[in-house]
């Protein structure tokens, strides 16, 4: 079975072009873009890694786009929750001018792929972050296939902000108490099936089975906000993108 999963991982990694981010070409103010993303998808996109940046550069170049980064009093925050760190500002940014509290990213600009803070009423196209909770109970393998066939991929949760956004999506009573995510123990490590680097962790401190799992080799996110290692044959709801 693990050989089959490894083959499926290769297929997903070469076919998922833009990951969890949806490019919306219609220009809006930052707050209108945020509302649009929350109404139609999940939220304005957090760009929390170089991996994300490389994915989006394949989509657009040479134009600025709103992302979900804003100044909350004295701290730069992501719209979906969580502090922003290691921000790749353009030269002279952030300038902290009055009311320049929202951030756009420009791929392929003269100064490189960098972030600029602008007044939130400026109009730009934008990226929405899109997670899809599938309210069908499936085993981990069948959930993986469903995400690949019906959507793009089984979701990774590669940062605190992505974790918080997923947690917000699964709180309804009719969703199972835990949901599958695209994290699987393969060979000797936990691996995101969409190819995202496995850096961020949110394991339940009481769950020792994730250290070197024998049977519980698939990961689920609980409504309490932690990851659990589970038997892959359990049937749960799951998250795709």
Automatic annotation (TrEMBL):
The keyword Disulfide bond applies. Keywords: Disulfide bond, Receptor, Signal. InterPro entries: C-type_lectin-like, C-type_lectin-like/link_sf, C-type_lectin_CS, CTDL_fold. The keyword Signal applies. Residues 28-129, 124-241 form the C-type lectin domain. Residues 1-16 form the signal peptide. SUPFAM superfamilies: C-type lectin-like. SMART domains: CLECT. This is Secretory phospholipase A2 receptor. It comes from Collichthys lucidus.
């Amino acid at each position: 079975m693990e050989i089959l999963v490894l083959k499926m991982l290769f297929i997903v990694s070469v076919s998922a072009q833009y990951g969890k981010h949806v490019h919306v070409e219609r220009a809006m103010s930052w707050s209108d873009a945020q509302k649009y993303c929350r109404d139609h998808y999940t939220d304005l996109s957090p760009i929390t890694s170089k991996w994300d940046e490389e994915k989006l550069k394949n989509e657009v170049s040479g134009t600025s786009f709103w992302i979900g980064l804003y100044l909350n009093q004295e701290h730069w925050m992501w719209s979906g929750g969580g502090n922003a760190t290691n921000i790749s500002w353009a030269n002279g940014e952030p300038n902290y001018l009055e009311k320049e509290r929202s951030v756009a990213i420009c791929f392929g600009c003269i100064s490189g792929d960098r972030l600029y803070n602008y007044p939130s009423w400026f109009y730009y196209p934008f990226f929405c972050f899109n997670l899809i909770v599938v309210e069908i109970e499936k085993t981990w393998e069948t959930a993986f296939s469903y995400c690949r066939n019906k959507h793009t991929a089984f979701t990774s949760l590669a940062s605190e902000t992505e974790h918080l956004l997923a947690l917000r999506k699964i709180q309804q009573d009719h969703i199972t108490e835990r949901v599958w995510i695209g994290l699987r123990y393969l060979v000797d490590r936990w691996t995101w099936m969409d190819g995202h680097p496995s850096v961020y962790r949110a394991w339940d401190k009481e769950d020792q089975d994730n250290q070197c799992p024998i049977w519980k080799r698939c990961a689920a996110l609980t409504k309490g906000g932690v990851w659990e290692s589970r038997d892959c044959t359990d049937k749960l709801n799951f998250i795709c993108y």
